[in-house]
Amino acid sequence: MRNRGALLGSVMLIVLASMLVGAGTTAYFWDTETSSGNTFTAGKLDLKVNAKDDPIGVLVDLDDMKPCDWKYVTITLHVMDNPAKCWIKFTAVVSSEGTDTEPELADPNNGVREIEDYITVDVKIDDTVIINPAEDKKLGSLEDVVIDLGTLNACVDYTLELSFHLQEDVENWAQGDICTFSIVFGADQV
């Protein structure tokens, strides 16, 4: 047993000595470099509608519409700084009876139908048709629907054309009716 203890002690002494010798003879090269003045700047995105933020006033004012009338509204969109995926959305679509005329009061459909269900909307940006007249999309059915206008490049003016068509099958029930709505314009970074 004593030999085993001496043998174990000798092995441990050799291992310890090897570690000390190895530590003293090992060398590592090293170097450091410093990069200073680094910055992080968040990008910017700003959508302009007719050259303004939050345009004040009415963009769409279609007065005295008659069955089969088409009215066009042109709006300029401009994205500042970075390209963006742009969209529009019609919100708060509300119809009211307005002023009742004698022929309207005599029409059995007076007060039953809503005029926003008889206004067809078409959308085009520059030469790209987004909603085609043949699709027969009604203003009432487009409420709160995001209409994708595609990706608009920064610092370029785009012409958004909205057309509104009062259908030919509108009769006396619609005389004097009023439809109000808002248009939300959006831009999401790409």
Structure description:
By secondary structure, this protein is an alpha+beta fold. The chain has a single domain (about 45-190), classed as Immunoglobulin-like (Sandwich). Helix content is about 15%, strand content about 35%. The chain contains two helices and eight strands. It has helices at about 1-25, 100-105; strands at about 45-50, 70-80, 85-95, 120-125, 130, 145-150, 155-165, 180-190. The strands form two sheets. A five-stranded antiparallel sheet has the order 1-2-7-4-5, with no helix packed on it. A hairpin with a 2-residue loop joins β4 and β5. The longest helix has 24 residues, at about 1-25. The chain is elongated and about 125 Å long. The mean pLDDT is about 90.
Structural key phrases:
Immunoglobulin-like; three-stranded antiparallel sheet; 190 residues; alpha+beta
Note the run of SSEs as H and E: HEEEHEEEEE
Q: How large is the share of residues in beta strands? A: 35-45%
Derived from helix and strand composition plus strand pairing, the structural class reads: alpha+beta
Number of strands: 8
Uncertain segments:
none
Overall mean confidence score, pLDDT: 89
CATH topology: Immunoglobulin-like
List the helices and strands and how they pair.
Layout lengths: L1 H24 L20 E4 L20 E11 L3 E13 L5 H5 L12 E7 L2 E4 L15 E6 L4 E10 L11 E12 L1
Antiparallel strand pairs: 1-2, 2-7, 3-6, 3-8, 4-5, 4-7
Briefly summarize what is shown.
The protein contains 2 helices and 8 strands.
